[in-house]
């Protein structure tokens, strides 16, 4: 009996099965029970490195592993690719075969007018990350969020009527023409490189807060393209005078009585007349701040927040799909 037992033990120790189902099952088990999602940031947006903060502590998003280490490409559940950094011949995209489980995320926050239309992008990406409301991962520049407790509105002291801080001056832009006309009828305090008045971040905040009205003029007019120019004005206590998509489009994001749209006036002169009227009527001016009672402004943090949001989306959408009409969706609608 002892000899038989010893033989069984030796057989178990020396035998090596020829079949490979054990490691296959182990890999399958690991894949099914892998903790979290790995997102590889392939391009630093605008070539500016940033720190990978904890998605859990910063945005209450669990199970995210963010990395810029391209050696982890084959393990990444998703690859974030910033449009501005894509070469025309796509040579700086991943060249290795894409793992079947991996999703490529097209990330872009410029308007179509300022986004190069690169050939070869159709049927390349699985997910869109964009300011557009109908993007797979919608990431607006900012938003109004409900307050936990209602409060009275707060209007900072003002010593300027209309202000504009601009860095991108282009004579072909609609906003340039509008400004040139508007200044004929009302004084506009201007700042930024085109006016040889650089401002620091602290100066920017002080200037906007000191103005009754701020020209939140977008550099181009496109669906949902509403940038921090609007949200900064709201946050700092100025009434935004907006130029961008339609009033109806703005009202999908903020209350209609929180801003002034240039399209509501037949001419720059008519707008100037209205601003001067509001300057003399404090009660009517303060009505533009009613939104403060139940809302506060949130400015989204780029690019770390969209990386975390990508992670959350990938975890909740395991299905395999392709973005088949990127050009039509973004450039032609």
From TrEMBL:
Catalytic activity of the protein: beta-D-Gal-(1->4)-beta-D-GlcNAc-(1->3)-beta-D-Gal-(1->4)-D-Glc + GDP-beta-L-fucose = beta-D-Gal-(1->4)-[alpha-L-Fuc-(1->3)]-beta-D-GlcNAc-(1->3)-beta-D-Gal-(1->4)-D-Glc + GDP + H(+); an N-acetyl-alpha-neuraminyl-(2->3)-beta-D-galactosyl-(1->4)-N-acetyl-beta-D-glucosaminyl derivative + GDP-beta-L-fucose = an alpha-Neu5Ac-(2->3)-beta-D-Gal-(1->4)-[alpha-L-Fuc-(1->3)]-beta-D-GlcNAc derivative + GDP + H(+); a neolactoside nLc4Cer + GDP-beta-L-fucose = a neolactoside III(3)-alpha-Fuc-nLc4Cer + GDP + H(+); an alpha-L-Fuc-(1->2)-beta-D-Gal-(1->4)-beta-D-GlcNAc derivative + GDP-beta-L-fucose = an alpha-L-Fuc-(1->2)-beta-D-Gal-(1->4)-[alpha-L-Fuc-(1->3)]-beta-D-GlcNAc derivative + GDP + H(+)
Subcellular location as annotated: Golgi apparatus, Golgi stack membrane; Golgi apparatus, trans-Golgi network membrane
Pathway: Protein modification; protein glycosylation; Glycolipid biosynthesis
GO molecular function: 4-galactosyl-N-acetylglucosaminide 3-alpha-L-fucosyltransferase activity
Keyword line: Disulfide bond, Glycoprotein, Glycosyltransferase, Golgi apparatus, Lipid metabolism, Membrane, Signal, Signal-anchor, Transferase, Transmembrane, Transmembrane helix
Leader sequence segment: 1-20
Main localisation: Golgi
GO cellular component: Golgi cisterna membrane
Domain Fucosyltransferase N-terminal: 37-142
Pfam families: Glyco_tran_10_N (PF17039), Glyco_transf_10 (PF00852)
Membrane topology, as annotated: Single-pass type II membrane protein
EC number: 2.4.1.-
GO BP annotations, alphabetical order: lipid metabolic process
Every Fucosyltransferase C-terminal domain range: 156-329
Cited InterPro entries: Glyco_tran_10_C, Glyco_tran_10_N, Glyco_trans_10, GT10-like_C_sf
Record note on quaternary structure: Homodimer.
Family statement: Belongs to the glycosyltransferase 10 family.
Protein name: Fucosyltransferase
Organism: Salvelinus namaycush
């Amino acid at each position: 009996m002892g000899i038989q037992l010893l033989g069984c033990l030796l057989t178990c120790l020396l035998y090596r099965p020829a079949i490979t189902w054990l490691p296959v099952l182990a890999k399958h088990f690991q894949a099914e029970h892998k903790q979290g999602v790995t997102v590889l940031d392939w391009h630093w947006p605008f070539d500016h490195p940033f720190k990978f903060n904890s998605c859990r502590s910063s945005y209450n998003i669990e199970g995210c592993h963010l990395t810029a280490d391209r050696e982890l490409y084959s393990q990444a559940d998703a690859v974030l690719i910033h449009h501005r950094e894509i070469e025309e011949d796509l040579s700086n995209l991943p060249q290795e075969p894409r793992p079947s489980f991996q999703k490529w995320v097209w990330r872009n926050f410029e308007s179509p007018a300022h986004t190069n239309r690169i050939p070869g992008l159709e049927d390349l990406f699985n997910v869109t990350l964009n300011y557009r409301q109908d993007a797979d991962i919608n990431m607006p520049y900012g938003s109004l969020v409900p307050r936990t407790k209602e409060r009275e509105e707060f209007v900072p002291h003002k010593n300027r009527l209309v202000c504009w801080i601009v860095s991108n001056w282009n004579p072909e832009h609609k906003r340039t023409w509008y400004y040139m006309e508007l200044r004929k009828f009302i004084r506009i305090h201007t700042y930024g490189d085109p006016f040889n008045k650089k401002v620091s971040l602290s100066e920017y905040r002080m200037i906007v807060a000191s103005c009754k009205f701020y020209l939140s003029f977008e550099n181009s007019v496109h669906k949902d393209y509403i940038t921090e120019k609007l949200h900064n004005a709201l946050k700092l206590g100025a009434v935004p005078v907006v130029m961008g998509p339609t009033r109806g489009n703005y009202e999908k994001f903020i209350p209609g009585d929180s801003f002034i749209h240039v399209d509501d006036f037949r001419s720059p002169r008519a707008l100037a007349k209205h601003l001067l009227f509001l300057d003399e009527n404090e009660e009517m001016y303060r009505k533009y701040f009613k939104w403060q009672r139940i809302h506060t402004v949130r400015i989204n943090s780029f690019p770390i927040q969209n990386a975390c949001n990508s992670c959350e989306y990938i975890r909740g959408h395991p299905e395999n799909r392709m973005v088949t009409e990127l050009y039509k969706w973004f450039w032609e609608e």
